[in-house]
Amino acid sequence: MRIIRSVPAMTVWTSGLRREGVGIGFVPTMGALHEGHRSLIRKARLACDAVVVSLFVNPTQFGPGEDYATYPRTLKDDAALCRAAGVDVLFAPSAAAMYPAGAHVSVTVGNLAQRWEGMIRPGHFDGVATVVTKLFSIVRPDRAYFGQKDFQQSVIVRRLAEDLSLGVKILVCPTVREADGLAMSSRNRYLTPVQRRVAPVLHEALQAGRTAILRGIRFGAQVARAMQRVVEQEPGVTVDYLACCDPRTLEPLARITKPAVLLGAIQLGRVRLIDNLLVRL
Ligand code: AMP
Fold first, then answer.
1. Same domain, 70 and 110
2. Does residue 27 lie in a domain region?
3. Where are any strands of DSSP class E within 23-112?
4. What is the CATH number of the domain that holds 274?
5. Which residues are catalytic, by number?
């Protein structure tokens, strides 16, 4: 496995492969890799000739007061995981390498970025869309793999690829969970032992929402209340949102007549957790 840190070196490598007709699979990450990331790498490895993983903690998707400075950076462990998973190239640029001239021009996302995560983290999805566009133009993949764990991100990235004709097939892969249901996340390592015991309540709330729908409840507000009741049983948890939405537009559903996505975000102390569940009727 090669570790490439410079943008020109990465471009040279991918241009060479593309000339030879090699199909490139790409898994963009911010590092601190876990089983969730590994599942994306595995899918890419099975479907593509060459696999590129990027490790880049992108400053432009963090707001002031967020955890950019303290985000876990574990290059050695990440490289070992990638090597064992059969990755061909680990692309790990610095912020200066990615934004040598600053970030004057960027990609702006429409309504999809205004709700939920976008409401709580203004500018976040513009930062994500911009860095994904940049990474796609450097790596020039045929297929790119994203996790359902970040549902709103996956919807936005699909639209990004489609609306800007980026020529990349976007694959969204299932959320990998701990045994107690907690969605794996690089940020889970911030949880104290007490918070870690409480954290699965988010998944439990989403499951309660799904059960309500499967039992015939068709009012989105009622489903949201069913989820809220579960979280309220745990003191010390703040709900950012728990909502029953259209999986394409992410608008809240008043009446549930088609598949829905349950979106949730909570705060445990200073740690934010997000999760979601798709419900097919
Ligand atoms: P991150 O490093 O958190 O930016 O995540 C990189 C990619 O891995 C994104 O597409 C995430 O949605 C995906 N991902 C993160 N956690 C999980 C998980 N538990 N299961 C599946 N995919 C995940």
1. yes
2. yes
3. 24-29, 50-55, 89-91
4. 3.30.1300.10
5. 37
Q: What is the spatial order of strands in the sheet that 260-268 belongs to?
A: 237-245, 260-268, 271-279
How far apart are the CA of 30 and the centre of ligand 1, in A? Answer: 9
Give, using CA atoms, the residue closest to atom 12 of ligand 1: 147
Residues 271 and 238 in one domain: yes
Q: DSSP class of residue 102? A: B
Given 120, 140, 173, which residue is the final one in a domain?
Answer: 173
Instruction: Give how far Cα 90 sits from Cα of 84, 122, 167, 256, Å.
Output: 12, 30, 22, 43
Looking at ligand 1, which atom is closest to the CA of residue 146?
10
* Alpha carbon nearest to ligand 1 atom 10, residue: 146
Does 66 share its domain with 141?
yes
Residue 180 falls inside a structural domain: no
3-class SS of residue 100: strand
What does the pLDDT profile of the chain (281 residues) look like in tens digits?
999 999 999 999 999 999 999 999 999 999 999 999 999 999 999 999 999 999 999 999 999 999 999 999 999 999 999 999 999 999 999 999 999 999 999 999 999 999 999 999 999 999 999 999 999 999 999 999 999 999 999 999 999 999 999 999 999 999 999 999 999 999 999 999 999 999 999 999 999 999 999 999 999 999 999 999 999 999 999 999 999 999 999 999 999 999 999 999 999 999 999 999 999 98
Claim to verify: residue 168 and residue 190 sit in the same structural domain: no
Query: Which of ligand 1's atoms lies nearest the C-alpha of 39?
Result: 21
Residue 98 lies in a domain: yes
Nearest residue (by CA) to ligand 1, atom 17, is 36
What residues make up the domain containing 89?
2-173
- 10 Å Cβ neighbour count for 51? 29
Residues 65 and 40 in one domain: yes
